[in-house]
Amino acid sequence: MTTMPQSADVLVIGWGLAGLVAASEALDAGRRVILIDQEPRTNLGGQAWWSFGGLFLIDSPEQRRMGIRDSLALATQDWLGTAAFDRPEDEWPRRWAEAYLEFAAGEKRSWLRERGVGFFPVVGWAERGGYGALGPGNSVPRFHITWGTGPGIVAPFAAAVEQGEREGHLTILPRHRVTELVVTDGVVTGARGQILESTAAARGVESSRRAISDFEIRAEATIVASGGIGGNHDLVRAAWPERLGTPPAHMLTGVPAYVDGSMHAVSEAAGARLINGDRMWHYVEGITNWDPVWPSHGIRILPGPSSLWLDATGTRLPVPLFPGFDTLGTLAHLRATGHDHSWFVTSRQIVEKEFALSGSEQNPDLTGKDVGLLLKSRLAKGPTGPVQAFLDEGEDFIVENDLESLLEQMATHPGGELLDIDQVRREVVARDLEIENDFTKDAQIGMLRSMRGYRGDRLIRTASPHRLQDPSAGPLVAVKLHVITRKSLGGITTDLDGRALGLDGEPIVGLFAAGEASGFGGGGVHGYRALEGTFLGGCLFSGRQAGRAASA
């Protein structure tokens, strides 16, 4: 059965953060909007709802209060050194990077504040680099945690969309899966697809793909905001570049199953040019979720700088591949070892101070805006509740009172047969010898001492330097780490208005793209690497640009 065609001024495909922003901008411009998604309405907000809510800002009041001196010039130097644009097709991504940096240094914060978005006062320092002034990484802390995490950043845009729905200016259509963009005389005039059967599936839970009827929607402007490919391991492996070694045989999934990349092929069939598909952002600090929501559900540890990082054989990772310094460099190095996992060896004191878990559901104090819980969980002694749950229930955690017992358990753990136990012992003992003196040749120890010069790290992020075998800091903890999929850095090429570009470089009339589907702007605003806090920000900025242009 085919339903009667519906029509609108603007059709938005995908109700993640970029789609919600685009739809709200179209509503503000007085347009009639249809917003569709293949999932049940419980998933309004998409992948962003599950996020930690980190946002990249430049020279913010939060930074200044923490004694951080930042500037657009320094952030631009960091972005370009991190992105390493080197392809002819990077023309539009570079332009998007320049525009986004201006946004992050300018109206981004005030625009969000006007919508009721606030920020945790301590600014985080992600992707610390460690190579040199022109190399990758953030020279200063720029990771601003949204008060309310992912749900907090989604809320004002979801509210605007729902208000538009109540007022009759916007229609939300769940369970609408697009299989074709309608092209009429070279102009995209809407979309066709399948209506999927109703489901009571909770947020994030994999849902049925059984079609019960077809649909067609006509629109003057269509915005593709359907996300990336991180939930589809087949597409991830197919796009995996040689420079990152071979794709892992085993990966965890950091996004729900609906992040399936299905709209990439649909957009390409309508003439859109996809670029930089080989650029991707996956983490190597993934742990198996003991309480999973979607298939192969993994959680990323957001590590502080103190844990000892070993590959699957027990060899320490080289400088500067310390926890939290260079995600892509660490991924490339570990893939070259031929093994799918690595290890943290650490102490409970480090876990208490430095282990944060990515995800709104793993941070109930920040997500719930609960100051009392925050004071008890972040500033009091002991790990946060979610971290303690992984210590108690997580299959990747080993806790023992002494080194020999820890080594024995590591050796018998799945994957532990690859370890050279004598080498692990040497690494721990050598590291502990170095830390007993105020002077050291160990670069990681020198760096973590330097990091504690930043007030934010000293308060809540970096443990006081100590021996791993210090009984007062124990027990010892080993954590088996996996590759966990997360972001596509490439996508549909767009100009600065979010208009999708064809193979000839000209805009496809009627077609726009935003968010991860467009590589967060231009088909890959991040280049090869991200500075963190830039994914949600890319959805905000690209969704705003596309929503405004599609409404013009």
TrEMBL record:
This is KsdD-like steroid dehydrogenase. One of its GO terms (molecular function) is steroid dehydrogenase activity, acting on the CH-CH group of donors. The keyword Lyase does not apply. It holds the Pfam family FAD_binding_2. Its EC number is 1.3.99.-. Gene3D superfamilies: FAD/NAD(P)-binding domain (3.50.50.60), Succinate dehydrogenase/fumarate reductase flavoprotein, catalytic domain (3.90.700.10). It comes from Microbacterium foliorum. Keywords: Flavoprotein, Oxidoreductase. Residues 9-536 form the FAD-dependent oxidoreductase 2 FAD-binding domain.
